[in-house]
Amino acid sequence: MSTHYEARLRRTGRWWAVDIPELAIHTQCRTLDEAEDMARDAIVEALGVRPETVGLTLVVPEVAALLESVLAARRQRAAADAAEEKALADAAHTLSEDLRISQGDACRLLGVSQQEMSRLSRAARSSADARPRLLGPPNGSGMTRPRQHRSAPPPRPGWAVADDA
Asked: How far apart are CA 11 and CA 35, in angstroms?
């Protein structure tokens, strides 16, 4: 059985004050790295339970708004990365399968390596989207390969990017 507590931290001089309001426990530490261990040790000592049964969330109210904006930016970046992945996979499929552009030329247009283009092409073929294909499956069997995740793409050449104007 695990019990979860919230430890509230605040800076006091060169120390961090650590309060666990539910249990009226107070301790302190020099760094945030020490805070979780100090709070857990204080709870274990006060309640006489095993350390692995204590769940702990560290909260620093003074910087909560600042950290929330960082988390929001990270969520937006993850959503943008997913949208880029889908757009690249769709473009790779259209270029290689529908328009029959060579893999090398498609790589130049998309600004990706040949390995990345190959992975994107497989990902687009294996995706379960319902978009109609202009041409049938490449081998006529309907078989596709599994999707894999990609690493960060190299910069795209300026001439390969559509103008926003």
From this structure: 12
Phi, psi of 120 (to 5 degrees): -65, -40
Both structure tokens of 139:
């081998």
pTM given for the model: 0.49
Q: Identify the weakest region by mean pLDDT among 84-93, 138-147, 154-163.
A: 138-147
134 CB-contact burial (10 Å; exposed 0-12 / middle 13-18 / buried 19+): exposed
Write the pLDDT tens digit of every residue in 12-55: 999 999 999 999 999 999 999 999 999 999 999 999 999 999 99
